[in-house]
Amino acid sequence: MKPSPDLEIKQKLTALLGAEAVSPMTEHGFRGEPWLVLPETEAVLATVLRLAHQNCWRVLPMGAGSKLRWGGLVREVELVVSLARLDPLIEHATGDLTVTVAAGMPLARLQEHLKSAGQFVALDPAYPTTATLGGILATADSGSLRHRYGGVRDLCLGLTVIRADGERAKCGGRVVKNVAGYDLMKLFTGSYGTLGIISQMTLRLYPIPPASQTLCLQGSAANLTQALLAVGNSTLTPSAVDIIANDGLGLALGFQSTPAGVAQQVAQFLSLGQALGLTVKPYTGPEIWQGAERVVCKVGVPVTAAVALAGLVTQLGGVAVLHGGGGMGHIRVMPEIMHLQKLRTFCEGVGGYLSILEAPTTLKETFDVWGYKGNALGLMERIKKQFDPLALLSPGRFVGGI
Amino acid sequence: MTTRDWRPLVREFQQVVGEKGVVWTPEEMLVFECDGLTSYREKPAVVVLPKTTAAVARVIKICHRANVPFVARGSGTGLSGGALPVTDSVLIVTAWMRTILKVDLENQQVVVQPGVINNWVTQAVSGAGFYYAPDPSSQVICSIGGNIAENSGGVHCLKYGVTTNHVLGLKLVLPEGEVVDVGGTLPEMPGYDLTGLFVGSEGTLGIATEITLRILKVPETVQVLLADFTTVAAAAGAVADIIGAGIIPAGMEIMDNLSINAVEDVVATGCYPRDAGAILLVEVDGLAVEVTENSQRIETFLYQNGARSVLTATDPDQRLKLWKGRKAAFAAMGKLSPNYYVQDGVIPRTRLAEVLQEIGRLGEEHGYKVANVFHAGDGNLHPLILYDNAVPGALHAVEELGGEILKLCVRSGGSISGEHGIGAEKRCYMPDMFTPADLETMHWVRQVFDPRNLANPGKLFPTPRTCGEGARTQGREQVKDALLF
Question: Which residue of B has its CA nearest to A234?
């Protein structure tokens, strides 16, 4: 389908949003020459999408753009719609431990606000200083804290989305417990903007714990595996259990509790580790998101295979952080297809997966980005078709080219 | 019942599940005509009891080919009529799918068939020090498949979350008979989160035939505190202070005076003072050092809010004693009144006191007593409206009162269901919470999974007709030895 002439798109959008909110999207070098649109209200966002729907303009939604290159290569789009200006705090229900924000709210700004009430969003995603909550939700991006608090899916209580046809729809609610209607929050979490644009969300909050400390131990792969399983079988209550491949292998546990609770758990973990011949290693989280020549992957393997995967990453010259609760995490390796194939084969061999987030375009053109091996792709395609029949949203970015 | 000749279909079902696996005489089907919401009744045309995923898929394919609706049923303890048969439907009962297929302690997960009883999961792993966290009060009888359908909660979901937070993967038979695997053995897999979408879909998107659940390590120490207050508002104040201080107990439950007396009449715990306006149960768990410190702080908040006395227990038998009255609360209501009608609304927990007062006022206005037993920590109310079904029109009147209470919950910023589901009972209140566009978007999912509307039709989504349209009969049943709430 031949899109409308470029200038016509600009004219229509400028009439709606003003000239200042519509500009050529240059810095990202996307296919086509999309216009960057910055709506400031949910109503304007809805109008932009309705207009896009009427004119068959394809749309790539984004927040701050920190993860815009994650996932599959996006096919040509006419618009990049940024929610960076749709960012107000809508309601912080302090006593209810919930917060409702517009999707463009940066996580860092929200955390700063919540700090004064002694609360926080229990997420430690990539690019924490720039990432917006909408982007974090759309990519289901979580970090070490998922061990204690769960992933993004477990923290989202309600959503408002603007559908591909421009209609506003909400699901869930603003209370911590709610089973009314389908749980569309789960469907949208991690859907990479392929089903609609998230405009607003309600999140569960947690109190900032009075004390926290991280202890990292190092040793042989066999001893680390034993330590990891022993931790899982103990009554320790760490908030983070990370297997780290970064200048050797390490097992880092983060504890959050009362000061006495933290002190006791650190001591217990230390003696558990020492009994297995582990030694203390200064804790430095690996730099997953840095390095010019890099491929960053999201991986998942069972806990029992996590240390072995970390070992393989080390052999291939990469770095990794795998969260012990479910063996999920991130690895960074060089853009070598052979290496990626080897890692993917390992993950899939133990029932896990390897999906590519960041990689050079040439690599994504030749290597299956998502590595989805299940039998529900047809069902996913039917969902996409129902929600976005013209395939206008984030075209090509998701599993199976959705 | 229409004049359809069911014999050819019955023969087909018998070929799949054997003769014993098909029940269709009126007497045998009596037990299947309602679930825990006993005021609604309807006989299915045929009841089928498959044992395997393949058998479920074949049964559903037969239904699809014959264009016959089907309804899934686990143990039948649901409280919103989710497993209520629809006219001329096939009821697929999972009672013969009760195998625990796999236990993997190292990776802390189990795989079960849908008919496995909630409590069996914990029993299967408790020897090794693990448990399955979601604990609806009916856990000794309710099935995991039913928990999946309703996204069940329980008294400990304040800290540990509800069913959806503990499901890793599902094998599903979709409404056209296709078998798909969603999720897996890890909390997140590539692709849309169809596991999360399916949990809580109330049997309208298909049947889960294999379920992978996360299990947790039993905490080192558990302590229960029981405080009594002169008013519910005071107990609610203590709840707010505990949460406000950054403590997240495993559970916090409140019972009001009417419930306390009902319980004391029946189980005579001796520890719930009859003159108390409310009792508050708080359970904290974790390492001994954390539990001790948090319990001391909680005790301070309890007294600051006017607790007259605080009992504590860490020993399992003593803890059970403090919990006993709460666990028996709903069963005890039978002593207070010939019938009761339970609701399941949610409000922001900061508004407990005012909403409860308003519920009391609504009860008076409608001329019914309302007892309150609820999950205070997450604002999930269970008002019990006491009535006598022998009085003509009483059920209709209490349903109307129940509806008023739900609307009050929505107006207060809450929800019409915290853990029981919408089912047949509450779908007419969905438009109070959701706009036509919201509902249309949910319906899109339904159309993808079930274009012919054969899986549990008439549930969850509102229709232009009013609530309470289901067939009703008199009476109330109590499942033997089980707590239904």
Answer: B217
Rounded to 5 degrees, φ, ψ at B425 are: -80, -45
- Give, as one character, the DSSP assignment of residue A235: S
Tell which residue, A254, A252, A251, has the closest CA to residue A223. Answer: A251
ipTM exceeding the 0.85 mark: yes
A164 to chain B: closest CA residue: B441
Mind telling me how many Å the CA of B20 is from chain A's nearest CA?
33
Tell me, yes or no, if B347 comes closer than 8 A to chain A by beta carbon.
yes
Q: What is the pTM of this model?
A: 0.96
Q: Which domain holds residue B23?
A: 7-93
CB hemisphere CA count around B276 (13 angstroms): 30
How high is the pLDDT of residue A27? 66
Whether the CB of B437 is below 8 Å from some CB of chain A: the reply is: yes
Fold classification of A295-366 is Alpha-Beta Plaits (3.30.70)
Residue type, B403: G
Residue A326 has a pLDDT of 73
pLDDT < 50: residue spans in chain B: 469-485
pLDDT digits (tens, 9 = 90+) for A30-47: 667 899 999 999 999 999
Q: Is the dihedral of CA A380, A57, A192, A366 positive or negative?
A: positive
What element of type H or E holds A255?
A: strand A249-257
User: Is B453 touching A (CB cutoff 8 A)?
Assistant: no
Interface check for B181 against chain A (CB to CB < 8 A): the answer is yes
Q: What digits encode the pLDDT tens for the residues A110-165?
A: 999 999 999 999 999 999 999 999 999 999 999 999 999 999 999 999 999 999 99
Contacts of B178 in chain A (CB under 8 A): 379
Model pLDDT for residues A191-219, shown as the tens digit of each residue: 999 999 999 999 999 999 999 999 999 99
Which residues of B are less than 8 Å from A136 in CB distance?
none
Burial of B274 per CB tally in 10 Å (0-12, 13-18, 19+): exposed
Indicate if the pLDDT at residue A97 is higher than 80.
Answer: yes
**Which residues in chain A have their CB less than 8 angstroms from residue B286's CB?**
237, 257, 261
- Domain ranges, ordered by start, for chain A: 89-207, 211-281, 295-366
CB within 8 Å: B200 and A183? yes
Which CATH architecture describes the domain A211-281?
2-Layer Sandwich (3.30)
Write out the CATH class of domain A89-207. Answer: alpha beta
Residue B422 C-alpha, separation from nearest chain A C-alpha, in angstroms: 6
Q: Do B217 and A355 touch (CB under 8 A)?
A: no
Task: Give the best residue of A179, A226, A387, A394 to mutate against chain B (max B CB count within 10 A).
Answer: A179
The percentage of chain A sitting over the pLDDT mark of 70, rounded to a whole number, equals 97
Spatial separation of the C-alpha atoms in residues A224 and A220, rounded to whole Å: 6
pLDDT of B330? 81
Q: What is the pLDDT of residue B472?
A: 40
Picking from A176, A173, A149, A146, the residue whose alpha carbon sits closest to that of residue A159 is A173
Instruction: For chain A, give the percent of residues with pLDDT over 90.
Output: 90
